[in-house]
């Protein structure tokens, strides 16, 4: 497979939209890759998988799926599509069969930071704006973090509770970037999920918003996966 024959599809997580991928997108486009960003509604896992599969279907060749945070759950389910050649997790959830974000965060390690998720309103969740920067985007500029906090996308409880039926990482190769300073998904949990999935792991300093703050490092992991799949 020619590396550039592979399409790269980027999937955002909860509370944000696809615009945060711009730095990663620009980096990969410089190499000539076909890159698409899925704008998932994050209303339910089923909806988000359907939106992602629509983008996969639009590609003529093999696809590399990349998910950040909750986007990893979408990748794990949608990655079973026969066009998907591999999976990349960026500080993401990588659930096993029957697991959801809800089950994965149910029993946090003692002392682990607790994400400032506000009580649900009409079936949707938001992060406390005043605590958004510290928990989600500590290494992003104050201006950008404030904008991310103010432009949050309500995250559906049905997305939080959506359980994976067949984890694609059991049948597809995967790569994982651990954000070592993450205050949303503890790095220890990221390491455990990536080890279980048998992923090729890279660790970098970075907050949960590592895809915004360190786009070069994130693009490097995606490029590593694309090159490996071409061999």
UniProtKB/TrEMBL annotation:
InterPro entries: AB_hydrolase_1, AB_hydrolase_fold, Sec-Metab_Biosynth_Hydrolase. The keyword Magnesium does not apply. The keyword ATP-binding does not apply. Residues 8-221 form the AB hydrolase-1 domain. Pfam families: Abhydrolase_6. Keywords: Hydrolase. It comes from the Bacteria. GO terms for molecular function: hydrolase activity. This is Alpha/beta hydrolase.
């Amino acid at each position: 497979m020619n590396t550039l024959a592979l399409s790269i599809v980027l999937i955002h997580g909860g509370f944000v939209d696809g615009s945060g991928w711009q730095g990663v997108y620009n980096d990969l486009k410089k190499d000539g890759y076909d890159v698409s960003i899925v704008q998932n509604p994050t209303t339910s896992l089923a909806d988000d998988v359907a939106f992602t599969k629509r983008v996969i279907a639009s590609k003529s060749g093999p696809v590399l799926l990349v998910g950040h945070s909750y986007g990893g759950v979408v990748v794990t389910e949608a990655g079973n599509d026969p066009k998907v050649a591999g999976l990349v997790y960026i500080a993401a959830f990588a659930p096993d069969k029957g697991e959801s974000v809800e089950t994965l965060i149910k029993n946090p390690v003692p002392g682990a930071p607790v994400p400032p998720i506000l009580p649900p309103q009409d079936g949707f969740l938001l992060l406390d704006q005043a605590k958004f920067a510290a928990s989600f985007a500590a290494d992003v500029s104050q201006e950008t973090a404030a904008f991310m906090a103010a432009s949050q996308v309500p995250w559906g409880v049905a997305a939080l509770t959506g359980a994976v039926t067949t984890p694609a990482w059991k049948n597809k190769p995967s790569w994982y970037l651990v954000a070592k300073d993450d205050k949303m998904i503890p790095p220890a949990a990221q390491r455990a999920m990536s080890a279980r999935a048998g992923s090729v792991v890279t660790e970098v300093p970075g907050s949960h918003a590592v895809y915004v703050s360190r786009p070069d490092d994130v693009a490097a992991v995606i490029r590593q996966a694309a090159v490996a799949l071409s061999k």
